[in-house]
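Hi V.,

You were right to ask for the full record rather than a summary. Here it is.
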Amino acid sequence: MKKTIKRNLMGFPKWMVWVAGLSLSGFHLYTAWSGVLSPLHQRSIHVMILLFICFLFYRFSPGAGTDRLGVIDWMLALIVVCLGIYMVFQFNPEAVLDRGIMGTTKRETLIGVALVLMILESTRRSVGMPIVVVAVIFIAYGIFGPYMPEFISHKGYSISRLVSSLVWTTEGIFGIPVAVSATFVIIFILFGGFLDKLGAGEFFINLAIALTGRIRGGPALTSVVASGMMGSISGSSVSNVVTTGTFTIPLMKKIGYSPLFAAAVEAVASTGGQIMPPVMGAGAFVMAEMLGVSYVNIAIAATIPALLYFLSVGCMVYFEAMKSDIKILEKDEIPHAGNILKKGAHLLIPLAVLIYLLVIQQLSPMLSGFYSIIALVITASVSIVYREKRFPWREILAAMEVGAKTAVPVSMACATAGIVIGIVSLTGLGVRFTQMVVHLSGGILWLGGLLTMIACIVLGMGLPTTAAYIITAILGVPALTDMGVSPLAAHMFIFYFAIISFITPPVAISAYAASGVANTNAMKTGFMSFKLGLAGFIVPFVFLYGEGILLQGNITEIILQSITAIIGITALAASLVGWFFVRLLYPYRIIFFLSAIALIVPDPVFSVAGVMPLLIAFVVSQRKKKHASTLYHKG
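Predicted structure:
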């Protein structure tokens, strides 16, 4: 029996989580409409309610005991309630001013230590041990600074000083990550919950089948399209895998794709959803806050890179279908697009409202998300009342509860990431990391990017995307900007690799989730996902040398860089699969691969150097197809 970290609550605990979840969702919907409270009040209420839910809803360890809560769980939940009440009063303006002048008291230090421990334990339960280990290492670094190697040593800080900074200010736990979690992110998590409970998941899958079912390899393309749409809204690649994947993976296997390939497609597509506008999960909102720009600027900049990512996956899926002669779905297996739209077109209205408010009206993401939820509830309710003669109270309340539960791991990871950020800021580690990268790379941009990429992937292994991005951005962005990269490009570079860590062995979480659905070997699925998502490793390096595909600069640069990147991505897909209208022998695959690398570099000389051998290899392969069967054996 599969172990789980979540309890199947019954009775009084279930009722308490239900009340807490509805209270949290109601609180955030209200503040989205009326305006947020003071920063420390807004963030502390958010964190404390989610801590309470976590200790009731998540087990001490996966599969441990029964679904009944133990004494420790009740004690932790009670402590959280007490801490929450105390801190709400201690975050009033007068108390904050007194602490700024007099410092924290012994009682406040003890309360702060207790909160840090609560955060770490809740993160361990809901997210996992890796990010907790990272946080503990950074805390130890903050305390034992004088005993560290010379290049990262510092004067060291007492526990009282650390707690004062990490808990009682907006520089640690209640810093930027939780600020974004308690405003923008929670609203879009609720939006995703409402979409799911009101039928959007099924609608998107059926619509994707209707659009791609008549193409060879259609079910795999369905996975790419549906997972991209849902992943953008949900912001969680793992949850996306286990929802859309339960439908798309068996369908891919049914028409002839290997289970390994099917699982990898789902993992890569679900992971890529987090870089797909209009929502892009939680990380994009954090990026906008850290850069101090409008979220619309982030979404616009991410558009072409996201399309390149999904173009690469789509090409690989199609090339594999042609190479393996995958059959096309039967007509009776393909729903009619008109019928699908007729039945579920109302679910597109809230998305249109969201895009209009974000892009045209340029309202805040929080207010845009709120109005989109209202539009969704109204349109879905009208449809359900008309079709089923009932009002969807149950679905609405379930969406509010599920949204709160879904927010637990995201917010706990953000709170723990805040601890890391607070230590980095306090000790000056970010400056030292920048110096190390610049020194080791010798100022060579691609090498500095490579070192930063490795740091992103290593630090991101096992972490939620938002936490991985925040931690690596604090360390990596200054290193890249010191080498001449713009802040937007540097942040986007790191954001991509924080996401890519989900399909990078040995800790490819999305791939492992997909392997569970497909019943494949987890590690093999991870390496196959790495292969299919390789474009995600290459495209970010374009940001370092030219920002055309981020829609920055003049129109000529944007068009030329986009065209050469599209050709390069297509060549890369052909190289990795071994098919481009004909089967490709390994020499041709190597040529295609090298051409792809050259084309992706935004430079006219590299573009010409990439196109010429690509054209020659294609012409030669076509001639050999006509005159010999050499290219038809497996490459």
